[in-house]
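Note to self: user wants both folds in one dump. Writing first protein now.
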Amino acid sequence: MSSSGVHRTLRFGPFELLSSKRVLRRDGVTLSLGSRAFDILSYLAERPGKVIGKKELIDHVWSDVTVEEGSLRVHVAAIRKALEDGQFGNRYIASVKGRGYSFIESVVRLEDSTEQRRLAAILAADVVGYSALLQRAEEATYAEFERLKRELIAPSLSRHEGRLIKTTGDGALAEFASPLAAMRCAVEIQDHLASGGSPLRLRVGLNLGDVIVGQDGDLYGDGITIAVRLEGITDPGGILISEKVYSEVEGKLDVGFEDRGEQRLKNISKPVRAYAVCTGAHSAPISKLGAALSLPDKPSIAVLPFQNMSGDPEQEFFADGMVEEIITALSRFKALFVIARNSSFTYKGRAVEVKQVGRELGVRYVLEGSVRKAADRVRITGQLIDAATGAHLWADRFDGGLGDIFDLQDQVTERVVGAIAPAVETAEIERAKYKTTESLDAYAIYLRGLAKFYQYGNRLATAEALRLFNSAIELDPEFAVAYSHASHCYAHAKTNSWSSGTADELAEASRLAQRALELDKDDAWVLCGSGWALALVVRDLGVGTSLVDRALMLNSNLAEAWRCSGWMRIWLGDPKLAIEHFARAMRLSPLGRWLVDIQSGIAHAHFFLDRYDEAASWAAIALQNDPDFQAGVRISAASNAMAGRTGEAHETVVRLQRLNSALRVSNLKHVLGPYRRAEDLTRYEEGLRKAGLPE
């Protein structure tokens, strides 16, 4: 199947702008760009070298509504992010002070370019651990892979009418006329390797999708990208296929499938449902044949079916539905490896030891629980267990009425997930503390950095956290969340008056945040941490807020993102919404590491709502948890002063000056967030001035 069409195309650098299809692509991969942002980019790129005024752009793009310049700035920032344009020294879009914007890269116009497309089944394969194997035995590894390509892969492609698109040092891409032919080829290759035909192991990803045919016969587009991304997350020795392939081959071969759930793949806007291929209708996936599975390189968890202790068959459906919701919610944490429902539910109704589950599923942590009904009430219990040691890491119970069973299901899911993710992270940090120095890797160093990072008000700990995160980055230059946490360290320093605020510090915080986003735009923690640093340190509140909003869209159970969003609503001048977001963060993580900051944030929100007594009360609660938390001390002094409690306010300012002797009313704004409304900053200054802070 093939088609062709005529499109107007603008090319610049590695990018293509297809105006008629309203698509921006980089190296054949479609990028995510909103409709207004596309219009802005198209308008600028069609006029390279010309300075376009802000009003002209706004009139062109928002002809139907009235907007402020802030909306234009936010969309230009989104374009720069999509183009990976630098925070300092832009390559594509330059800001012309006082005038507008100019597209400064050369543009090639292809007014009548013809693009060939067709539907194809794509096979992507690579050698597991190829780089490490080369370091140990370079010549032997190279020779063995060449032999495999010559004696196994090429003949198998020929038998199944596959076409080799290209080879890389450690892998290959091939095209097939049908998904069934691609599947037969993949199974044949993996069966040969599993039988001991070679010391090398492959990962294979299969996808059925629309591809672009280049003039040289090479293929491009999301159809290729999805196959490559699936191969990248496949188990060693395994085959992972997209849902499109599954729908075409299911029931036509003597293989089974394990549903791995929806996968978020890099540079692919929508999740892709994936299935692991099994060697027989009732056997384990290919990668699971033989010995117990090795643990993934990140925290791994399986959620077992909850036991129905009530004897009421209807509660069986409630319990199963709740477990499915928990699995789905945990899967949104990209730092976790979560076993899919189909695998977890193979243990339903079976009495098994947690250690056995850990071995068979290749996970370190197991969540189990029960549901018991009595009259119109239901009690749910849950416990998190370390599968290696049998140690209980977390346990809780939940009671509720059956009046709205789905609402109860949502509440339990939210509370369990809000507790589980931090509990797993804490357990991983503790394990990292006891690793020998020789066995340290990037992830272990990162975990040690987290342990320091969470000592929020400790200057030396924050400096050590930054050093450890940078060490992890040196070992793994593509460790996105390490970059994000490193940028967050600069935000720690700013809010506690530890930083000098130099241009170099701002540039480094921005570089780290932007690099994290370049590496992984779909990790909620990366978006949250980078957005926080860009808002608080770089003072780009618009971009920071949009990043945190996207983090919440990807993972609504991330308490840290609700905390950041609460502060951003205060800075934007919406303290009522800030209170709602802080409350959500506290409900998700009632005993979390950020509790003092959340309580301080609620105090700030009440302060800007003229509720000075409530603000002082919340500040007092925060300071009970950490008497030296500077944001809490500041708002306590200002709130008590505005409430007329001058003596208490003066005492608090004395404590504040012990913590930060250089703080004055005149430099207060340097330690605060980027308040958009001048009157909010003025009120804060007035409160601390009344409390006795020197001018």
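First done. Writing the second protein, which came from a different request thread.
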Amino acid sequence: MSNYTKFQQKVIKRYYDNRDTIALQRAQELVTELYLTAGKKREKHWDSLALHLGKLGVKPDVIAHLRAQDKPELVATLIKKLMEK
């Protein structure tokens, strides 16, 4: 961290302090995208969503199940439960 200015250090620290919030917000945005897309783009959104759900502590088998079901409403329900924690 010594190679960064004080301002840059603060920005980096705030990012890591809010990483869960950032991942949750991005997961919410991706659920919306799943409702609106199909085909290759939908697969790309699922890949990104799986990454963000993993950052939120969702187990890989749960993520695989949600992806196999391919129902955004199930993911939305999970995200709602994560927000309540």
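Dump finished. Worth passing along: The first helix runs from residue 6 to 17.
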